[in-house]
Amino acid sequence: MAAPDQPIFGALAESLGFLLRLAQLQAFDEYFSAEGSPEHGPGEMSILLMIDANPMIRQGVLARALRIKRAHMTKIIQSFDRAGLVQTSVPADDRRSLELTLTPAGKDRLARVWDRVSLNELGRPGNLTQRETDTLKRLLRKYLSIAAPAEGADA
Amino acid sequence: MAAPDQPIFGALAESLGFLLRLAQLQAFDEYFSAEGSPEHGPGEMSILLMIDANPMIRQGVLARALRIKRAHMTKIIQSFDRAGLVQTSVPADDRRSLELTLTPAGKDRLARVWDRVSLNELGRPGNLTQRETDTLKRLLRKYLSIAAPAEGADA
DNA sequence: TATTGTTATACTCTATAACTATA
DNA sequence: TATAGTTATAGAGTATAACAATA
Questions:
Q1: Nearest CA to A47 among A94, A86, A98, A82?
Q2: Nearest CA to CA, how far is A51 from chain B (Å)?
Q3: What positions of strand D are covered by protein, i.e. any atom < 7 Å from a CB?
Q4: d(Cα A149, Cα B106) in Å, to the nearest integer?
Q5: CA B96 – CA B91 distance, rounded (Å)
Q6: What is the mean pLDDT of each run of 10 residues along chain A (155 residues)?
Q7: Among B1, B6, B21, B59, which would you mutate to test the A interface (most chain A Cβ atoms within 10 Å of its Cβ)?
Q8: CATH classification of B30-143, choosing from 1.10.10.10, 3.40.309.10, 3.30.1340.30, 3.60.15.10?
Q9: C-alpha A46: how far from chain center
Q10: Rounded to whole angstroms, how far apart are CA atoms A25 and B104?
C-alpha cells in the first residue's frame, strides 16, 4: 500500500463536516487567487455584506448570524469604525446595544472589494455545471435555514 | 428598516464561498456540541483520518490534499510523533521525504474520537432529508474532484 | 439575574521567508 | 536548480472568562 500522489479520502469523503471544510478552503483559494492579499478576509467581508443588507443591525445579532464570537466582533467593528467604514449608534430602547450601519465610505469599500471577489467566484464554480451549482447553493441554504435571495437579486 | 433578529443574508445567500463557510461553521458546531473540548480539532482529525486511509503517505502529499501548509503540517506531525500516534520513516528512493503511518495507539485514538464525532454528525444533517444529504455530499465531492467512497464503506 | 458589549489572555491556524539536505 | 521538510516570525481567527452598564 504505497502512498499515491492522489490519496484516498476514505471516511472524509463521507463526512459532511469535512467535505464542507475542504470545499470552503478550495472556494476561498479560488476566490482570492488572482489578487495577492485582499483588503478584507472572508470574515470581515461577510460582516460588511451583512451590515449593508441590514442597516441598523445590532452587533449581537450580527455576531450570532455569522457565528463570530462577540469578543472578536467587537475588535472588528472597532477597526471598521476607526477606518470610517461603519457608523454606530445606541438605540433608545436598549442602551446596552450598538446599531451598525455602513458609511458611504463603507459602501464604496464593499462595492469595490465585492465586485472583484464575486467576479472571481462566479467565473468558476469548480467542476460543477450551472444546474449543479444552483442545487448545491439551494441545499446549503436549506441546511443553514437561510432564505433564498430575492428574484433577480445580484449575486 | 429596523434590524430583525433574523437578518437578511442578501448577497451572502448567493455566494457559494460564503454559504460553504457558514455551513462549515454550523457543521462543526453540531459536531463538537455535546463534548466540551474535543481532543483534536477538525484539522488534526482530518490528518489522522487521512493517514489511516493511506498508510505510508508522504507528508507533502498529505499537506496538499488537506490544504494545510507544509510548515504547519510539520508542527502537527511532530506533536503526533511525540504523542506516539504516528510512526515516521524515510523512503529509500527519496531521503528528503517522510512517510507517515498510524501506530496502534494512533489507531486507537482515532477510533475513539471519530466514533464520537461521526455519531454526532450522522445523527443530524441539519434540516435535510437523507436524500438531500446524499446529494449535497455528492456535489461537494464533485466540486472537490474527490472520488466517492467504496460501496458499503463506513461513514 | 440575565444580557450587551468590552477587555484581556491564550491557543490554533495561516502566511511567509530563509534554511538544510537531498534530488 | 528544484523539492521535502524544517525553523522562525508575524498575523488572523477563535475560545474563554471576567467586568461594567443596562435590562
A1: A86
A2: 9
A3: 3-9, 12-18, 21-23
A4: 46
A5: 8
A6: 73 93 90 69 94 97 96 97 96 97 97 84 76 96 89 53
A7: B21
A8: 1.10.10.10
A9: 4
A10: 31
CATH code of the domain occupying A24-144: 1.10.10.10
Q: Which of B4, B125, B29 is nearest to A147 (CA)?
A: B4
Cα–chain-centroid distance for residue A139? 17
* C-alpha cell of residue A150: 430575492
Element (H, E) at A29: helix A16-31
CA distance B105 to chain A (A): 19
C-alpha cell read off for B55:
498508510
CB contact under 8 A, B11 and A136: no
Residues of B in contact with A29 (CB under 8 A): 67
Within 10 A of B143 (CB to CB), how many other CB atoms are there? 22
Q: What is the pLDDT of residues B76-121, one digit of tens each?
A: 999 999 999 999 999 999 999 999 999 999 999 999 888 887 777 7
Note the pTM of the prediction, 2 decimals. 0.91
Q: Which three cell numbers stand for residue B72?
A: 504547519
